[in-house]
Amino acid sequence: MRVAIIGSGPAGFYAAEALLRRTDTVVHVDMFDRLPTPYGLVRGGVAPDHQSIKTVTRVYEKTAARPTFRFLGNVGLGRDVTVEELHRHYHQIIYAVGNEDDRRLGIPCEGITRCTPVSVFIGWYNGHPDYRDAKFDLSVSRVAVVGNGNVAIDSARMLLRTPAELEKTDIAAHALEALRHSKVREVYILGRRGPGQASFTPTELKEFGEMEDVDPIVSPEDLAGCIIPENAGNAPQWKNLKILQSFAERQPGTKAKKLHLRFLVSPTEIIAGADGKVAGIALEKNRLEVQPDGTVSARGTGEIEVLDVGMVLPAIGFTAKRIAGVPYDERAKVIANEDGRVVDPVSRAVTPNEYVVGWARTGPQGLIGTHKAASAHVVKHMIADGAGLEARQLPDPEAIDTLLRQRGVQIVSFNDWKRLDDVEVARGERRGAPRDKLVDVEAMLEVLDQH
Ligand SMILES: Cc1cc2nc3c(=O)[nH]c(=O)nc-3n(C[C@H](O)[C@H](O)[C@H](O)COP(=O)(O)OP(=O)(O)OC[C@H]3O[C@@H](n4cnc5c(N)ncnc54)[C@H](O)[C@@H]3O)c2cc1C
User: How far apart are CA 342 and CA 356, in angstroms?
Assistant: First the structure.
């Protein structure tokens, strides 16, 4: 059985492991990634100051070492190879392409200078090649991060860390240099609903109280009307509330930087200054309403305030990117699927031998660990659907490499990646960091040529 997995993030690797563990048949897995480097958001999303989370890649290395696994990096579906070609070379295909687009606020002036989707900021500080040339004007003193998830927390924390804190991480060198000279002193995290509805996790929230040069600030008023469902038990929301209460009870701090957590506000407009760049954000005050089904929604009160900030980072979620030939669900903004089986978005008829895992299947829900069981679940469908498929004769396994090379694609193998890894780690040692990332695809390929 030959399977192509498109995308080498956690969901792709856990799917590969589940396939390679099959004892009833030998499965050959070719894992493609549009980047020369594997691991998706573990490399390009997880915050540089959370190194311990990145050690999960050791598990993926074990999968990559299995004899019937191959990594074909620097090969993009829709760019270098088509879905039709994959069907010719493989019995089954798994899309594990994540969510590479941002949800939009949909308010006036969202596209002006210094209002930048959070994925650009995250990609920039994490050395993602797509964003190595992004520019952030860090001469502003106040920044608003819109959203109440861990991504909002991560980006606020990265804006507020001291250079000494950042140096020890694998932050991209260009971002470290820019943040060294940053004038940002205050960051506002803005939530549409109350603390009881925030999706950030207690561990991440608590960290604001432990940073070298940051005082967290919460208004007791914002906590007063907090609604947490009675059946929430020991839910993280309770822990969040306790942490927020402890922040609200703190005496005014003397640290140089402030982190404000604001709730019950919805942005209605980005305010442009005379220079056309962000000069503020208009916010409508909300109140909470409990719906008959128990969900809690925010309703605008019509009361507007303008927050004086020089930069806005909308962090309200991500969507899957459209890829030519891959059915797309316009409503859910993911690859159209029924429980991981790819379907036609209109008729809902199954597209044979195509599957989807991870964020491309569900949208941006779930931590790295959640993909293990979720990908294994989809692999069960593949096994159920795939009986007898391996009888179909395919071209030689190397035929796909030949096709790609004829197109001028330089395929990066897992051994090649290990060489890049060694180079990055050696570069990092010079600054006392876990690694100093190569951020340019051309530079990565040159390093491989030199070796
Ligand atoms: C900023 C941020 C911080 C996070 N921090 C944490 C954390 O601390 N702890 C935690 O547990 N979880 C964290 N998460 C969540 C975690 O990263 C995700 O749950 C997980 O990475 C999703 O896995 P995935 O495999 O679906 O997608 P991804 O990890 O996004 O992987 C998708 C892969 O597909 C590749 N790809 C995309 N399009 C193509 C194409 N056309 N052709 C070939 N390849 C393609 C990409 O290059 C990428 O390598 C974080 C997420 C974000 C955004």
Answer: 6
Are residue 121 and residue 94 in the same domain, yes or no? no
Place of tokens 């070492």: 65
Q: Which CATH number does the domain housing residue 51 bear?
A: 3.40.50.720
Percent of the chain with pLDDT over 70: 99
- Cβ contacts of 17 within 8 Å, gap of 6 or more: 63
Pick from 41, 49, 365 the residue to mutate for probing ligand 1's pocket: most ligand atoms within 8 Å of its CB. Answer: 41
438, part of any domain:
no
Q: How far is the CA of 146 from the centre of ligand 1 (A)?
A: 21
Residue 169: strand, helix, or coil: coil
Give mean pLDDT, residues 168-196.
97
Evaluate whether 401 touches 43 at the Cβ level (below 8 Å): no
The domain total for the chain is: 2
- List pLDDT tens digits, range 272-304: 999 999 999 999 999 999 889 888 899 999 999
- Is the pLDDT at 232 greater than 90, yes or no? no
C-alpha dist (Å) from residue 322 to 34, 86, 121, 188, 451: 14, 17, 22, 32, 36
